[in-house]
């Protein structure tokens, strides 16, 4: 056990966050995201049974967001014609505002298939059990 480390962060995830360098990206994926097929060239960390908001909050206690880009947080854009609600995004805005002075302005959206392509080049993908749709979030690491 370590002091001041959120207990939701597994040893494997802590090691991965520590290994990441400036501008490396990590995806926190919802339960529908094809983590294993997108993560063939990166680390895939299983966090089944956990939701994205809890992991996002815990990760941002340790991981600084990149200040050299306008939008270090990326969400998967809802597909045109898809009748999906994204109330979880409001929770993300609250969490990001808690950890980064830019708040919601640090968040951008990426078209679904472009998000998949970006995810393939991420340092790691965390596969969660999140049930909300369009709940995927990609973080770009900054400098400590």
Could you explain the architecture of this structure?
- This protein has 144 residues and is of the alpha/beta class.
- Helix 3 (52-60) runs parallel beside helix 4 (88-99).
- It has a single domain (22-140), classed as RbsD-like domain (RbsD-like fold, 3-Layer(aba) Sandwich).
- The protein has 5 helices and 6 strands.
- A 6-stranded mixed beta sheet has the order 2-5-1-6-3-4.
- Helix content is 30%, strand content 19%.
What's the helical proportion of residues?
25-40%
Percent strand equals: 15-25%
Q: How far apart are the first and last residues' alpha carbons, in Å?
A: 23 Å
Largest sheet properties: 6 strands, mixed
- Net shape: globular
Q: What is the CATH topology classification name?
A: RbsD-like fold
Say what oligomer this is: single chain
Number of helical regions: 5
Structural class: alpha/beta
Mean pLDDT: 97
Observed structural traits:
144 residues; alpha/beta; 6-stranded mixed β-sheet; 19% strand
Topology:
Blueprint (H helix, E strand, L loop, with lengths): L10 H9 L5 E5 L5 H4 L4 E5 L4 H9 L12 E4 L11 H12 L7 E4 L1 H9 L3 E5 L8 E4 L4
Short description:
Keywords: Isomerase. By secondary structure, the protein is of the alpha/beta class.
């Amino acid at each position: 056990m370590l002091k001041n480390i959120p207990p939701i962060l597994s040893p494997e995830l802590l090691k991965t966050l520590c290994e990441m360098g400036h501008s490396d990206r990590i995806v926190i994926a919802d339960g529908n995201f094809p983590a294993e097929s997108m993560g063939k060239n990166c680390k895939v960390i299983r966090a089944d049974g956990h939701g994205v908001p809890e992991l996002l909050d815990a990760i941002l206690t340790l991981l600084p967001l990149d200040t050299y880009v306008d939008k270090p947080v990326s969400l998967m854009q809802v597909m045109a014609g898809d009748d999906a609600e994204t109330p979880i995004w409001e929770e993300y805005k609250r969490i990001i505002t808690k950890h980064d002075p830019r708040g919601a302005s640090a968040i951008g959206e990426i078209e679904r298939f472009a998000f998949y392509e970006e995810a393939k080049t991420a340092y790691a993908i965390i596969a969660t059990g999140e049930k909300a749709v369009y709940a995927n979030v990609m973080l770009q690491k900054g400098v400590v």
